[in-house]
Each structure stands twice: as C-alpha cells, then as structure tokens.
Specification:
The protein is α+β, with helices and mostly antiparallel strands. The protein is built from twelve helices and 20 strands. It has four domains: 89 residues, Rossmann fold (3-Layer(aba) Sandwich); 67 residues, ATP-grasp fold, A domain (Dna Ligase, domain 1); 130 residues, ATP-grasp fold, B domain (D-amino Acid Aminotransferase, Chain A, domain 1, 2-Layer Sandwich), CATH 3.30.470.20; 87 residues.
C-alpha cells in the first residue's frame, strides 16, 4: 500500500486524512498535539512539531518509510516542512520554490510590481531597522497596516493610525512571524475584500470560487462572513479572476490549490492583490464550502494534485453559499441559547461552536479568536442569505462581563 505522510492532523486536516484512506493510501500522521482528532484515523501517528523538519526527516530515515507523497491540508504552518521533505526525497507536490513565494508577502509584492498589477504601497523591515525613517522615506500615510511577512489568519496584523502606534504594532507583528521575522508596513486600501480559490494544474489556472468578505465595523483584520457567488461577486468576478490568474501564473506555482486575498478599491475601482498562498482557506472552506460551491471533489482533487496524479475538471459550478462566523462580547460564556423550534425548520445549514460553557471569550483580534461558524447552502443567493439570517436570530450567547450579564447573537 502506498504511504503518504500528512503534516498536521487536527480538525481541519481530518477530511484530507479520511479521503486518503478512502483512496487506499497508508497514512502516516504528524502533529505536535498528541491528542489531535486526526490521530485515530491514521495508520501510524507521531507526536512531532509540524515545523520540526529535521526531526521528521530523521523519523522517515529511521522507519525507512517508502513515501509516495508528503501533504498538508488547509494549514499555513506546515507548508515549508512539506516542501523541504518533498525536495529532499524527490516527491511530487509543493516545492521550496513554491513555498518561498507563498510564505513571503515581500516576494509577492516584487512579482506584482513586475506585472504592474495594483498592490498596496509598502516597505519592509528587517531586525534593527528604524521604522520611522523608512516610513518617511517611502512617503506612506496613516492609517497604514503592519503585518508579518509570513503569517496567515490575520495573526499579528494591525491597523496603525499614527506614529505613536507603530512600534507596538511592529512588536506584535514579530510575535506572529512564522519564519523570517520580516515586517511589512503598507498603505491601507479602502474597499471591498474578496477571496479567490484556484487550482494550478500543469501551468493552467482554474478559478474554483470567489467570495465577498464582510468585516465588523472598526475591525479591518478579521472577516465575519464569506459570501460565495453573491450578487457583487457575479458583477466583479471577471475582473477579479483575470487579475488573480495573471498573478498566479507569474508566481510559477506547480500543481497546487491556492488561496488569494484581493481588494476592490473604492478610490480607483481597481483590483488590488493583497496576498496569496499555496493552500486552501480554512474553517470549512476546503472540505465543506468549496465542494458544494463547485460541485467538485475538492479534497480528492487536491490530493491527486499533490501526489502528481492526473486530474480532470470538466465543469465548475457556481453555487451560492455563506460561511458566517459567530462572535460575542468579552467575558465568561455562561450559556448558549438555541431556538430549536426555528432551527429544525432550516434545511441545508450547519453550525459549529469552538467554545464551551465556562470559557472566557476575548477580543476578536485574528481568525483564531472566532468562536464558531455557520454554513448556509442553497440554490439562490437570496435563499442562503435569508437562512443565515434566520439562524443568526436563533442563536444567542449569554456572556458575563465585568459589568454584568450580556447577551449577543452572531
């Protein structure tokens, strides 16, 4: 039986592990969490930090694994490990060349500049460099955005309104730098954000799905909703797809799925590329949303891409779907009220909570601080939108704050 090494075996990797088993592969799982949910579905499991490339290679040599592939699913942290192993062992899948671009917003900006594709004006900081000198030299204006060059999930991203906030934002960004400790300071583009999921196969780019993002007031870093094939997506989809496809081709990725963030600017009505990466979106996008939206076995096709197998895509559907995230006020969660009489009447909708009664809920500062999600499926954008709103109405989080009891919905 062909052996596949899977780097990461948590909740959002579970569908990939199961699909590999379904395809009759022998699955060897790696995860730093000894109690991860994917462990029991692997044929073998080893408790190793997914960033510890050397220890994983030592394991491969010691166990004399005969691998046909090394894969990660919907996680940024494992990309470099996967690429290093693939290159070292001569396996198909992500390469160091792919990942060096996918995990560096700086390299991506250089590619965008060469293509004359709109992207935020920016500069980057290495350790020890003076941010104020560079800020003035690059003629940036406030507000601006400070972020790590190589992080994902909005971790370490802050909107800065004046010079007094710059140093703290840079310190915060460095905490979340996964590899390089380089920080980007960029102009803030006011506009509508979109995500684009694509397949790269033998040099051809196929756009799988585009979503319109929604963010809460006064929070420019964390999205609260992804609306796939919304009316606005249908209106702007062609120009977004054309811009992203040009960029992805120039990145020269091999066979992989990609996730790209763009902004349609209010100021000049152009599509600005913010960043891309060689993985799918998380929080159910990979294994729940994309299969419904496209009508394709996204998980299975992604595995075949990574292992160098041939794939065939005849038609990509454009079904509407909403992925909406739950949030609540700060404090201790004392109850979750679900209006079952309403919820049981809803079809093709699901929801998941990441918190339990008694947990403390903090400020929503990045994607990881969201407390759950709902997914609304349907045949029209009106249907999925209305069902999402009904479910939002039907769930309440009771939170005990320092000022007393509070109640809030999605």
């Amino acid at each position: 039986m062909d052996q596949v090494l899977v780097i990461g075996a948590g909740q959002f990797q579970l569908s990939g592990i199961r699909k590999l088993k379904e395809k009759n592969y022998y699955v060897i799982g790696i995860d730093g969490d000894n109690k991860c949910v994917g462990r029991k579905f692997c044929d073998e499991f080893y408790n190793i930090d997914i960033k510890d490339y050397k220890q994983i290679l030592d394991l491969i040599e010691k166990k004399n694994f005969n691998l046909v592939g090394c894969i990660s699913f919907a996680t940024e942290y494992a990309l470099r490990t996967v690429a290093l192993i693939n290159d070292k062992l001569g396996l198909n899948g992500l390469t160091i060349s792919d990942v060096s671009i996918a995990t560096s917003k700086i390299k991506q900006r250089e590619i965008l500049k060469s293509l004359d594709i709109p992207s935020p004006k920016f500069f980057y900081l290495n350790l020890g460099e003076n941010v104020e000198d560079k800020f003035d030299a690059n003629q940036l204006m406030f507000p601006c955005v400070v972020k790590p060059s190589d992080s994902a999930g909005s971790r370490g991203v802050n909107v800065v309104k004046n010079k007094a906030q710059l140093q703290n934002a840079i310190k915060e960004a460095r905490k979340f730098s996964s590899f390089d400790a380089q920080i980007i300071v960029e102009e803030m583009i006011e506009g509508i954000e979109f995500t684009v999921e694509s397949f790269v196969y033998n040099g051809e780019i196929k756009t799988l799905a585009i979503s319109e993002k929604k963010k809460p007031l006064n929070n420019h870093t964390v999205s609260t909703e992804l609306f796939y094939n919304s009316p606005l997506v249908n209106n702007l989809g062609n120009i977004i797809e054309e811009t992203v496809t040009t960029f992805i081709k120039a990145c020269n990725f091999k066979n992989t799925i990609t996730h790209t963030e763009v902004i349609y600017s209010y100021k000049d009505h152009k599509v600005y590329i913010i960043e891309t990466t060689t993985r799918s979106g998380g929080f159910g996008v990979f294994d729940k949303v994309l299969p419904f939206v496209t009508g394709l076995d996204i998980v299975g096709l992604s595995i075949d891409l990574s292992l160098g197998n041939q794939i065939s895509i005849d038609r990509i559907q454009k079904n509407p779907c909403i992925l909406r995230f739950f949030s609540a006020n700060e404090g201790k969660l004392i109850n979750i009220v679900e209006m079952e009489s309403i919820i049981k009447g809803l079809n093709d909708i699901e929801f998941v909570f990441f918190v339990n009664i008694g947990d403390n809920i903090g400020v929503m500062v990045n994607d990881g601080s969201r407390i759950g999600y709902l997914i609304s499926y349907g045949r029209s954008w009106e249907e999925v939108y209305n069902k999402a709103n009904i479910l939002e109405y039907s769930i309440r989080f009771e939170v005990l704050s320092s000022l007393g009891s509070d109640e809030c919905g999605v």
